[in-house]
Amino acid sequence: MPLRWPAVLLLLALGPTSPPPGASSTDDRSSVLSVICAFVRVSNSQYGLPKTELEAYPIAVARQGLFEPAIVYPESEPEKVSPLQLGSSVHIYKNGKRIGKLQVERFEPRPYFAVQVLVGMGQWSLPSSYYPTKFDASVKAETLKDSIYTWSDWSTQSEGPVTYSLLPLLAFDRELPSRDARAVLSPERTRIAKDALWGQARQLAAAAGYRQRLREMKLEDFRSFDLNADGIPEVVGSFYLPPPPKQDPWEGHSVLVVLSLSSTPKRLFGQVAQGVGWWAFEAIDTDNDGWCELFLTGRGYEFFGFSILKTDGKTTSKVFEGADFGG
């Protein structure tokens, strides 16, 4: 079945991106950015127990605020090697803080939905609250707690089915400064933030030609951060604009808005794309310039991908988009 890509993905990063705003970095070391996937193998034997393993799914190589694609598809790129180094340690982060580690002992091709991706595997440590130890087949992937996506591979029947769960955990092959960039808003500021996000989302959707569908738009995800620790929050709203009646839900559109919640809310970023949504799942300062990058994941028709936004409070740019898989 052919992929239906969100319109925004027509500009996939195929090489080094242009310098982002505020790129006066104090740290010029490169690092490999990965997303962590947990997979559970359920043995067919009578006494088989679920066993959880982790793998590092490379997304990009980061250097001075620039991000180059790092994903390797071994079936179509057999000569390409992983950007991860054998024997290196991959440090796992959640909410800006280091919570675990994976030692890269080998590389293996693994199925990511309908494609093979070369990943790093080995000994690992991670609090059990961050990964699934078993899966309930009756639970739909979209509702599985803290997972970007979950799917199953039934091609190894002799060993039992394998269920994969892509976790919202970033990993880097070097340690980064630790800071929780989440911001806690009062009920009143939350109301102000959501009102401002709604206003900007309606403007973006109307400008894209979807004025007649504005009544159907829904706020699907709301996050608040303080990306540079100045006490002025940045808020992210992910909206879904359903398609006209009798059309597939994937024919709908997502609206993403990022605002600076100063005395007068200011839009830092906005986009409208086909698909069911993009949402921010992490904020980490990868280049030690004082501003955290926003890491987003997006979903379309049988598609998943990633984006990275960088801002200095005045201008904001998308410095990476890609590392996608689907089928």
Q: Characteristics of this structure?
A:
ten-stranded antiparallel sheet, disordered N terminus, 327 residues, single chain, four-stranded antiparallel sheet
**What's the total count of β strands?**
18
Rg, rounded, reads 20 Å
**What's the helical proportion of residues?**
under 10%
CA distance, first residue to last residue: 7 Å
As residue ranges, the low-confidence spans are: 1-26, 138-145
Chain-averaged pLDDT: 81
Structural domain count: 2
Percent of sequence in beta strands: 35-45%
Main pleated-sheet profile: 10 strands, antiparallel
Helix/strand order, N-terminal first? EEEEEEEEEEHEEEEEEEE
- Shape, per Cα inertia axes: globular
- Secondary-structure-based class equals mainly beta
* Count of individual helical segments: 1
Structure description:
- There is one protein chain.
- This protein has one helix at 187-207; strands at residues 31-41, 51-63, 66-69, 89-94, 97-103, 106-112, 115-121, 124-125, 149-153, 162-172, 218-225, 234-241, 253-260, 266-274, 277-284, 293-300, 303-311, 316-326.
- It has 327 residues and is mainly beta.
- The protein has two domains: 23-172, no CATH class; 187-284 and 291-326, no CATH class.
- The strands form three sheets. Strands 1, 2, 3, 4, 5, 6, 7, 8, 9 and 10 form a ten-stranded antiparallel beta sheet that branches. It has a four-stranded antiparallel beta sheet with strand order 11-12-13-14, with helices on one face.
- A hairpin with a 4-residue loop joins strand 17 (303-311) and strand 18 (316-326).
- The relative contact order is 0.20.
- The model is unreliable at 1-26 and 138-145 (pLDDT under 50).
